[in-house]
Design a protein that fits this description.
single chain; about 375 residues; alpha/beta; seven-stranded mixed beta sheet; three-stranded antiparallel beta sheet; 11 helices; about 40% helix; binds 4'-deoxy-4'-aminopyridoxal-5'-phosphate; Aminotransferase_I/II_large; histidinol-phosphate transaminase activity
Length: about 375
């Protein structure tokens, strides 16, 4: 029995507003086919692994020193990648990086949210947005999407203008539903917002739509575009998220970030991964084609499938989504119950994994 186990959570002087909450987290189960956390199914190449190892070996000799606190070289590399993929001339001053985009989002709410402030999101969406709001004591203001999970932009802009939240989250493509928001619609929303608008583009590389980065020149005082290397970049284990914004936004985040938050190991591994971007992102086209194949096959089996331009698909309708999730698991396929009635979400995997998922889908039925 671990030391101190006689004390329970309810015995601790926990903040009242955290009592009764459950931690975020999908089950991490050892199952043959894991399609539940929207990772890239392809591991890093042997070349990339060798480069990471060599870089780590080099910095290992300097681990007695703190890393570059402002991660300047990494931010330069991120700026070069994002500038070349969006055509917007970004520099390191426009980029900020942290341990996953979750930490980016947390820093944003630490700086622009907090007690007495409000953040608004269009639900269902990424469930960490309200959790990070809770952790930073930012009041959460949920706003529903249409029944088909699309965003009614006219209505959304009205609500944003009316409630005047300090921070608005727009997830594009939206997790867990899959659709993205056109830049013209984002413009309407940002125009209506009095405060900060965070466009969470964790899945941008899988989408054929333009990035919100194109709007930074027009809305430097409002817009923050958040990105991650966890998905298309196949770097989920490396933990590297980033944002693009006006340099003043980065100045704001410097006030709340912990010093040396990005380890020297993280910084060099992420830079090595960025040098292999072309190779890694080569899998994106294949995954997009596989996504379309999965969508079509599911529809062929009689499922309702929500259109997606990300690397996952939301589908239903299940009388009992929880039971269906368990049934997939019994077939060796781990997918995600995202808490949307009648629906489950599957991440697009390798062709073999997708075949296994589709075979299980035939068995599970609706
Ligand atoms: N935003 C969205 C929309 C996501 O789906 C995720 C991961 N599930 C994240 C942010 C955070 O990912 P990470 O911290 O790995 O960058």
């Amino acid at each position: 029995e671990p030391v101190g186990e006689r004390v329970e959570l309810s015995d601790l002087p926990l903040r009242e507003d955290l009592r009764g909450r459950t931690p975020y987290g999908a089950p991490q189960l050892d199952v043959p086919v894991r399609l539940n956390t929207n990772e890239n199914p392809y591991p890093p190449s042997a070349d990339l692994v060798a480069e990471v190892v060599a870089e780590v070996a080099e910095v290992a000799g300097e681990l007695h020193r703190y890393p570059d606190r402002d991660a300047v070289a990494l931010r330069e590399d991120l700026a070069a990648y994002l500038a070349s993929s969006t055509g917007v001339p970004l520099t390191a001053a426009n980029l900020w990086a942290a341990n996953g985009s979750n930490e980016i989002l947390q820093q944003i709410l630490q700086a622009f949210g907090g007690p007495g402030r409000t953040a608004l999101g269009f639900e269902p969406s990424y469930s960490m947005h309200p959790i990070i709001a809770a952790g930073t004591r930012t009041e959460w203001s949920p706003t529903p999407r249409r029944a088909d999970f699309s965003l009614d932009v006219g209505r959304a802009a009205e609500i944003v203008a009316e409630r005047a939240p300090d921070v608005v989250f727009v997830t594009s493509p939206n997790n867990p539903t899959g659709q993205s928001v056109p830049v013209a619609d984002l413009k309407v929303l940002i125009s209506a917002a009095p405060g900060i608008v965070v466009v969470d583009e964790a899945y941008a590389e899988f989408s054929s739509r333009d990035s919100a980065v194109a709007l930074l020149e027009e809305f430097p005082e409002k817009l923050i575009v958040s990105r991650t290397m966890s998905k298309a970049f196949a770097f989920a284990g490396g933990r590297l998220g980033y944002l693009a914004a006006a340099p003043a936004v980065v100045d704001a985040l410097l006030l709340v970030r912990l010093p040396y938050h990005l380890s020297a190991l993280t910084q060099v591994a992420a830079r090595a991964s960025l040098r292999h971007a072309d190779e890694t992102l080569g899998s994106v086209a294949l995954l997009a084609a596989e996504r379309d194949r999965v969508v079509e096959a599911l529809a062929g089996l009689g499922f309702d499938v929500v259109p997606s331009d990300a690397n996952f698909v939301l589908f239903g309708w299940f009388e009992d989504a929880r039971a269906a999730w368990r049934s997939y698991l019994e077939h060796g396929v781990l997918i995600r119950d995202v808490g949307i009635a009648g629906h489950l979400r599957v991440t697009v995997g390798t062709p073999e994994e997708n075949d296994a998922f589709l075979a299980a889908s035939k068995e599970v039925g609706r």
